[in-house]
Specification:
By secondary structure, the chain is of the alpha/beta class. It has ten helices and 16 strands. The two termini are about 20 Å apart.
Length: about 325
């Protein structure tokens, strides 16, 4: 085993809003405790990575920190009976890049109980094209299904449609036969969103400003990664017995809504957590991704970049300039 590994290394800067971020050779001896060591082949850049690397939100709880909330790779060493050298594994969340060193690196040491064995139908590159964003999208789809939402019931709204969660959600929902409406602030990406399977594209301005407590009924279901007024308006315009899944806060963490949609229309608001999601749901989600995500659409929405691109991409994703998925090849 090499004495060092490369990583996106974040250090606290007293008095500064953002951490110092750099690619650094880190001693293996400095790695955090864990019973499985993984040679990381790929990671990705999610919105949460952008928040952590830029300091736009207080994601990091200990310093120094290796960035990256997910990774895929091959087990190098293991004292965990569930894993052996050579196993292909992935991890999403469980405190990566918050309290535990993350996956934007060539090596990671973690608890085996956090790992999922990579489904045979999904390649390492595709698993990170899916990433935490795509895995979260699948959790949202499962949330809709478990509340009984069916394609025959009407349109499904996907907000933040050109981002990672939105892109994967559209592709899955379209394959499952749903009539998908994509909401985006980037109208130039309309053709891209329709290529993923969206039937209709609307301007996010229709949802992003303060609205009425109740609006015209439209959505049978919603996948929202935006929060704030957008989520409030999605709730207010959902159909009777509609189901809204909420997994993000790109617009804001507030929810300026009333109880009226819940008590007059029976709307269900389902919170989606990808970080500490129980292992049985993770395995279910990855199993469904292996069968229900059209990989040709995923591939068309994916670009591969070297580790050196991780920091600038983190800044770009917060500006809304990243379309689809960016996979980081940690060895490039």
């Amino acid at each position: 085993m090499t004495a060092t590994f490369k990583a996106i290394y974040l250090t606290e800067q007293p008095g500064a809003d953002a951490p110092h971020a750099e690619i650094r050779d880190v001693p293996v001896a400095d790695m955090m405790p864990g019973d499985v060591t993984v040679a990381v082949s790929h990671s990705t850049i999610n919105f949460k990575d952008g928040l952590a690397i830029t300091g736009a939100a207080k994601i990091i709880r200990r310093w120094p920190m290796v960035a990256g909330i997910d990774f895929v790779g091959t087990v190098e060493e293991s004292t965990n009976p569930g894993f052996k050298p050579g196993d292909l594994v992935l991890q999403n969340g469980y405190g990566l890049s918050e309290g535990h060193w993350g996956g934007l690196a060539t090596k990671a040491r973690v608890k085996g109980e956090w790992l999922v064995k990579l489904p045979q139908a999904i390649s390492p590159v595709r698993s990170m094209a899916i990433g935490t964003a795509g895995y979260t999208a699948m959790l949202c789809v499962l949330g809709l299904e478990k509340q009984g939402v069916k394609p025959s019931q009407g349109e499904i709204l996907v907000t933040g449609a050109a981002g990672g969660v939105g892109s994967v959600a559209i592709a899955i929902l379209a394959k499952l036969g749903f009539d998908v409406v994509a909401s985006t602030g980037r109208p130039e990406h309309a053709d891209y969103l329709k290529s993923l399977g969206a039937r209709t594209v609307i301007d996010r301005a229709e949802l992003s400003a303060a609205g009425a407590p109740l609006g015209k009924e439209r959505w049978a279901g919603v996948v929202d990664s935006v929060g704030s007024h957008t989520l409030a308006n999605a709730i207010a315009t959902s159909r009777y017995d509609g189901v809204v899944t909420a997994c993000g806060l790109a617009q804001g963490a507030d929810l300026p809504a009333t109880v009226l949609p819940f008590i007059l229309r029976g709307i269900k608001l389902i919170g989606i957590d990808s970080v500490m999601c129980p292992m049985d749901r993770r395995i279910e989600a990855w199993g469904r991704l292996a069968t229900d995500l059209p990989f040709d659409r995923l591939d068309a929405a994916t670009q591969i970049a070297p580790l050196s691109a991780a920091i600038p991409t983190a800044h770009e994703i917060l500006k809304g300039k990243v379309k689809g998925r960016v996979v980081i090849d940690t060895h490039a």
